Amino acid sequence: MKTVLLGYMGSGKSTVAKLLAKALNLSFTDLDDYIEKKEKKSIKELFKAKGEIYFRLQESKYLKEVLEDASPGIIALGGGTPCYANNMELIKQFSESFYLKGSIATISERLQSEKSQRPLIAALNEAQLTEFIAKHLFERRAYYEQASKTVIIDGKSAEAIKDELLIGLKTI
């Protein structure tokens, strides 16, 4: 069985997934990295060259590919992955999933220092970033909350979140 971490950008999905995979001695897949490898282009280049619709179609195809692989593993999704196509249904069918839920303040604080690496938010000032996050979280909440379990990330280290996920996996 696969374990999927989902949530908004900046919630620590990739960082925590790597720690969890190491603790469980399982493979780790970052879906965005997987897509870039398969497409031989960065996510940014894909969006620019072929547009969001093409990207979302490929994202769904590769998500299915990764989930249908029979070997157990930990997968970190892109923030929008659960919200398109029938991705959330695939996630529920082929995995146990955890929503790494952060408050708007936590996510905003984390993303402030990463803005230059994230094209969607690079040009936003602090107030615009907070509004952008709030809008997206509102739109995506219905998808994120379909996860098997929710873990609150506010005020917690990646290591503490990983430990909470290990406990959560034992109760599933």
Give structural notes.
With 172 residues, the protein is an alpha/beta fold. The chain has a single domain (2-167), classed as Rossmann fold. It is built from 7 helices and 5 strands; from the N terminus they run βαβααβαβααβα. The chain has helices spanning 13-24, 31-39, 43-68, 87-94, 104-112, 126-144, 158-170, and strands spanning 2-6, 27-30, 73-76, 95-101, 149-152. It is globular, with a radius of gyration of 15 Å. The mean pLDDT is 95.
How is the secondary structure organized here?
Elements lengths: L1 E5 L6 H12 L2 E4 H9 L3 H26 L4 E4 L10 H8 E7 L2 H9 L13 H19 L4 E4 L5 H13 L2
Helix pairs in contact: 1-7, 2-3, 3-4, 5-6
Low-confidence stretches: none
Helix content: 55-70%
Q: What is the helix/strand order? A: EHEHHEHEHHEH
Shape summary: globular
Query: What number is the mean pLDDT?
Result: 95
Task: Tell me the number of structural domains.
Answer: 1
**CA(first)-CA(last) distance:** 12 Å
The largest sheet, given as strand count, sense and whether it forms a barrel, is:
5 strands, parallel
Going by helix content, strand content and strand pairing, the class is alpha/beta
By CATH, the topology is Rossmann fold
- β content, as a range? 5-15%
